[in-house]
Amino acid sequence: NKTIRLADYKPPGFSIPRISLVISLDRHETRVKATLDCVRQDVTAASIRLDGSAHMRLAGLAVDGRPVAESLYDLDVDGLSLKNVPDHFTLTIDTVLDPAANTRLEGLYLSEGCFCTQCEAEGFRHITFFPDRPDILSLYDVRIEASREHCPVLLSNGNRVESGMLPGGRHYAVWRDPFPKPCYLFALVAGDLECLSERFVTRSGRPVDLHLYAKPHDIGQCGHALASLKRAMRWDEDVFGLEYDLDVYNIVAVSDFNMGAMENKSLNIFNTKFVLAAAETATDRDFDNVEGVIGHEYFHNWTGNRITCRDWFQLSLKEGLTVFRDQEFSSDMGSRALKRLDDVRLLRTIQFPEDSGPLAHPVRPDSYVEINNFYTATVYNKGAEVIRMMRHLIGTEAFQAGMALYIERHDGQAVTCEDFVRTMEDAGGRDLTQFRLWYAQSGTPHLDIRRSRDETGMTVLEVVQSCPPTPGQPVKEPFHMPLLMDWLPRNASDRSAPRLVDGTGQRLEQGFLLELRKPVERFVFADVPVDAVPSLLRGFSAPVILKTDVSLDDLSFLARHDDDAFVRFEAAQTLGRKTVLDRMHDVPVGSGEAGQALLAFFTHLLSGPLEDAALTAELLSLPGETEIGDAVDALDPVRLHRAREAVLNTLAANDAELLQASYTEYRDRQTPDLSSEAKAIRRLSGLLLSYVARLEGGAGYVGEHYRRAFTMTERMAALVEAAHIPDHAADGGGGGTTDLLDDFYRRYEEYPLVIDKWFAVQAQSRRGDTLQRICKLKEHPAFTLHNPNRVRAVFTTFSMANPACFHTGDGSGYELLAETIMEVDPINPQVAARLVAPLGRWRRLEPTRQKLMRAALERILSCKSISSDVKELVQKSLQ
Ligand code: DPP
Ligand code: ZN
């Protein structure tokens, strides 16, 4: 399989300004007639190359209406080349496909009897032969024909311009999209769907019909998604001045989907997971995720669709920017501080490990074998951080002007990350040459910050940056980045105003914005009180790993008093991290300095009035095992797990009475509504439950929490805890695993997304027999390797969220994952490839597990029929 390189990019030889498709749908024999208007762009291009997969059959090929003799084209497994074509010609291609046999879920396939498509990144080549690249923009005219009985709803991009009856119980619809688009944004849906509709009027007065299509049994859970869509449309007008550009916006929810959702022009196709939400079946987090993803796909209409990517190396151009936009949207809809903490957590648990492992790649990769493997946390989430840093550096006002300029300059074009940065440079009047390294260099930078006083009484902050080697990049240049910080006086009445007297930076409302460019930077401040505490990396202003000389005492102070939620959270997390690491080195929690500070902080939080329930829940949480383990060499994950468990048990026991009192108080204050206050209270009571569940009689609390639950959030909080309790340990309170899991299953049997949760809690269980239980779950009648959500519920959860079980000392966790990857691969290579990453973490582990993990990778590689998707990742993981 070929490696594709950014350096080899060449503009297309031919443009295809128009394409018309006639698609006659049939479960096993769908016929596609594509008519392409081809115009030579490059005079040296003698032949035209069309991508096309071996999964379809070529049934006809004609140039300007004349069939092409077989000697005039070359057909191979990846497509076809046509020689000696004129400068301008019409190419007609007939293909035949078998959607019912398509288990890969790319191109045209069936989900519960509904025809649907997924064309990003390279799915269009499974529908017809076409130069499948994002820099070819065409006007689409699509005629769909299907059985009226099985497919009453026929949808494609743009506006429906015609429809009617056909003989033989069939009907048709013609859709025309007035905007030129790359083929990855083409979509088609045909099925028996119900529809929920609303109308939105844009601020310039255009009425837009919004339709949300779902299976009849799901339609009752679509209201939140539709309301979220309207909020997103209004928000993009208010914040970026961007309006919707067509008269109709359709969203379709399907159960079988590789990604979360897809932004096809005016016809988004969604995984049901990011559409359906009702209080009885979805958690508060599910509600937030639906809102965020609905927003994300909508925001793509401008950042992705109107302005698209020149090539797939530029994926972050649309994804990083659109994630940034959806983060801002969610921040404005809910709590900005909490949203930031969620985003930081995601970055640290998924992106940082990726960036320090064998699959590390820059935000703009230089090469790939399988582009589907690059829909990663680096491209998406680190990409969003890069946008956020640019906003810090040039300022919000210039950034907003830059966004407007970007749209003005590049609307209708397929552009690059470089085009975006240049626009921001022009708008901000700043040189971002060094900043561009964020797109080219992989790896998470480390900052080491130390403070001192010089002879003249000035306070000096010394910041050293470094970035560890990553695959193909042994040595890094220093990054240009914003470091937001402030000085927190110990005494609140202290009115001194520190000034920056040396070093690049400025005083803003949120603190000092310092700019780092050199490996070592010195910032000199005047008028800093001797006992002031530095509040560093406020708002997590750059995606870095921070090391400081801030004392435990100062951390305790920051955790109690900082006005920046991230710094407060981080101070508490640092106390937690240090305590767990001490415990791993056999320091009892109560006798280590970090442990004592942590215990005191917990007691302090629980004895005071809890002003902000959601933030309190964050402050009472310990960092996860993956995150702590990332900083440990020759890691034994089971040892780390035991240490963290011991810390949690000690924290619970130390404050038993306070925890029980707070728990009962907050449990009783729960209300079933979706206000942010109600959500915050549910979050805190769930977190408190996780502590009281560790106490004597804990199972009783769990059972009671479950029985009193009004919402899925409460029910899940209890079920997660119940799943940790071994059967024999449940007391008379009925909080035992089996009772509650059985009850849950019976209640929600008809709701596949809820059954995913049922699978996931078991895969996440701390019970000693979890691995055996997962093997049994694989045989459960409701388990299937064909549904991506179900596979992820068990295997992504088990391998990413249950380190102690995955890293079982004899390697059986690795074996189970490897086996599953080999089973899923022939069905759906994209889903299989998504499961590989945890096996690439062997370098971090102690020697025995290193060997076992490598053996599991070797086993996958020795499998002859392995897909290029899985192969690319396994090979990189072994290097
Ligand atoms: N559907 C994916 C997303 O929106 C890929 N574009 O991020
Ligand atoms: Zn996206």
TrEMBL record:
Cofactors named for this entry: Zn(2+)
EC nos: 3.4.11.2
Organism whose genome encodes this protein: Eilatimonas milleporae
Any one GO MF annotation of this record: metallopeptidase activity
Domain Aminopeptidase N-like N-terminal: 90-185
InterPro entries (alphabetical): Aminopeptidase_N-like_N, Aminopeptidase_N-like_N_sf, PepN_Ig-like_sf, Peptidase_M1, Peptidase_M1_dom, Peptidase_M1_pepN, Peptidase_M1_pepN_C, Peptidase_M1_pepN_C_sf
Xref: SUPFAM superfamilies: Leukotriene A4 hydrolase N-terminal domain (SSF63737), Metalloproteases ('zincins'), catalytic domain (SSF55486)
Name of the protein described by the UniProt record: Aminopeptidase N
Residues annotated as domain Peptidase M1 alanyl aminopeptidase C-terminal: 553-879
Name of a matching Pfam family: DUF3458
CDD domains, sorted: M1_APN (cd09600)
